[in-house]
Amino acid sequence: MAEHYPVLMYHGIHDSENDPGQFDPVYSVSLAQFQEQLDWLQDKGYKPVTLSQAEKAGNNENVVVITFDDGDITNFTTALPELGKRGMSAEFYITTDWIGNEFSMSADQLRKLDQTGMVIGSHGKTHQYLNDLGDTEVRTELEISKQTLETILGKPIDTLALPGGRGDQRSRQLAKALGYKRLCTSVLGYNTDKTDPFAIPRIAITRQMSLEAFASLVSADGRMMRKLKLRQFVLGNLKTVLGNRLYERVRARFLPAA
């Protein structure tokens, strides 16, 4: 495994709320931002690969993993062409009840995405936060989403990204029992050969993030990571106080630019 590498978490690529897909004021990055970030990775010699490739990379390889959560239509119409131009790989985690709606990729688009060599994974069935659910509901979220994607693609699905980054030990144990091999979180951090494959940390790329901040995080600038970890700690406490639903209503107010 590469000695120290980041896993980046994207959502949709939107210039404005009028673009196709589901615009989010925090997590939708503009096309110009996305292009600038990919060009920076390329210029600096980073190799965007899949999680399984990163696990096999040598210590001297400068790798990064690009991931997308939810299955927004712009993952296919915008992100895929930009990645393809640069010969980059990425992983896409899909909320299966959203497949084919007006904001999300269709089953046919998922198959085409898979055919390009990109990796498809699960992001739950309905995007409910797993730590809010009972045992039976958690199993349904993880099992049905996995089965749906396997039916569409005709291949095993073995990676899960927790919806909203919310999960607990129960979710991890059940994911393992259902045949998942990797679980991505929203916990900030970098990956090493000691990373638990069922607790993979990622770095959320937000609309407010400058290229300077992006570069600092990818290149493991400790000061920037400490700053964001402090913010995540504060927001984590806010989630505990408000609960998931109320927190979601106010989260944009508490995510200043990085």
What this model shows, in words?
The structure is a single chain. It is globular and about 45 Å long. The strands form two sheets. Strands 1, 2, 3, 4, 5 and 8 form a six-stranded parallel β-sheet that branches. Strands 6-7 form a two-stranded parallel ribbon. The longest helix is centred in the last third of the chain and has 21 residues, at 222-242. It has one domain (7-222): TIM Barrel (Alpha-Beta Barrel). It has nine helices and eight strands. It is α/β, with parallel strands linked by helices and 258 residues long.
SSE layout:
Elements: E1 7-10, H1 31-43, E2 47-49, H2 51-56, E3 63-70, H3 74-85, E4 91-94, H4 107-115, E5 119-122, H5 135-153, E6 159-161, H6 169-177, E7 182-184, E8 203-204, H7 211-218, H8 222-242, H9 244-250
Parallel strand pairs: 1-3, 1-8, 2-3, 3-4, 4-5, 6-7
Summarize this structure briefly.
40% of the residues lie in helices and 12% in strands.
The structure class reads: alpha/beta
Number of beta strands: 8
Fraction of helical residues:
40-55%
The CATH topology = TIM Barrel
CATH superfamily: Glycoside hydrolase/deacetylase
Profile the largest sheet: 6 strands, parallel
Low-confidence stretches: none
User: From N to C, what is the helix and strand string?
Assistant: EHEHEHEHEHEHEEHHH
Calculate the mean pLDDT score and round it: 90
CATH architecture heading: Alpha-Beta Barrel
Proportion in β-strands: 5-15%
**Shape annotation:** globular
For this structure, what is the CATH class?
Alpha Beta
- Summed up, the helix count is 9
* Distance from first to last alpha carbon: 29 Å
Number of domains: 1
Radius of gyration from CA coordinates:
17 Å
